Amino acid sequence: MKLNKFTKLAALSAAFVGTSAFAASNDALLDLLVKKGVLTDSEATAVAAELKEENKGVTFSAKGSDTVKLRFNGRMHFQYDSLDAEYGDGMDAPSTNHFYFRRLRLGAKATHSSGIFAETVVDFAENDLSIDKAVAGYKFNDAFTGSVGYQKVPFGFQETTSSSKIKTIERSAANRFFADDIDFAGRHTGLHAKGDLGAGFSYAAALVNAAQGEGSRLLGESNTDNDIAYFGRLQWESNGFTLGADAGHQSNNSKIGGFNNVTAYTGYVNYKFEGFDILGEYFHGDLDDLEDVDGYSVRVAYKIGKFEPVFRYSTLNSNMFEIDADELIRRAPKEGSSIKGTGNEIDSYYLGLNYYHNKAVSFMVGYEFAEAENDQGDEYDVDGVRARLQILW
């Protein structure tokens, strides 16, 4: 028995050593290819990332002749919010002041040797267990990966960037309007596709249920929402520069009256160089009878060692649709937060500092101030501090 355990331990150690040696040899080979001019630095980085991804997970036998590589992951965001608000003629709203789990996710991805993959992500942070992602698909080639299921549609650069990688604790007010306030972007169930077109260009597309949400029961009844929405993205990347445009159409949006359609687009640019990470996004939405909505955000971050100061300005202007400030500024006090009328708008300023202990552990703290108003003189101001500990595995 002891010999058996010793043999297993030796085999396991050899496997780890072999894996490390293999990784080291890959790095050395890639460095050599860069020096010889066969690969550029960016191409070598992409290959290294692909090799690293290939080495993740555990492979085992499945039904039939297939083998399956299974990879687990997780994310914990432990957060503190302290937000105060004032509305009307100097009225104070009950403040927000609490600790909570913003995200507590567990995920698993299985890739069959045949090329078929399936992935699920479950979030335990809500009162009820929620599904954040559930898809199955197949990569035919670099130009086309098709999948079916429930995931985010391609609309909004920051919205489709993982919350583990965004530079601010919460996404911008302009972003949240389309994803969280009117339930236009975000997660939908249906058909999804993406691929590389060459020369730095890529695309993504989705034909999905118009209703945002899991979609397994179409909001409870099979005939509650029979509408389909479609989204598309065209993006170009080169040397730290990303330029893209997304668009989508959704019929009979229940958040804006049930009989109004939403057509929206967003354009964005992200530039990374010498520690700087600059992002600009512009949004436009046609809300049918409720006229137009326009918004944009500009975010600048600068990495200094393990620290990263961040500043963001975001604004949203709505001709007729109300501004739900407590929705656009997540967990802001609700009382007095609805700005209804004409010429509704909100402006938000965020100043934060991030600390990256390593790639798996980071800490973020940020102060945000926002003010909402309209042509009728209604006002709502909110400000406060947020802090977050992030742990990935």
How would you describe the overall organization of this protein?
This protein is α+β, with helices and mostly antiparallel strands and 393 residues long. The chain folds into 2 domains: 1-55, no CATH class; 61-392, Porin, CATH 2.40.160. The protein has helices at 2-35, 41-54, 173-181, 325-328; strands at residues 58-61, 67-87, 91-112, 116-123, 130-141, 144-152, 187-198, 201-209, 228-238, 241-253, 260-273, 276-286, 292-302, 307-318, 323-324, 338-339, 344-356, 361-373, 379-392. A hairpin with a 6-residue loop joins β10 (241-253) and β11. The longest helix has 34 residues, at 2-35. Mean pLDDT is 88; it is low at 1-24.
Q: Keywords for this structure?
A:
alpha+beta, 393 residues, 16% helix, 16-stranded antiparallel beta barrel, 19 strands, Porin, 2 domains, single chain, 4 helices
Q: What is the top-level CATH class of the largest domain?
A: Mainly Beta
The sequence of SSEs as H and E is: HHEEEEEEHEEEEEEEEEHEEEE
Q: Averaged pLDDT, please?
A: 88
Instruction: Tell me what the CATH architecture of the largest domain is.
Output: Beta Barrel
Please count the helical segments: 4
Q: What's the total number of strands?
A: 19
Largest sheet: 16 strands, antiparallel, barrel
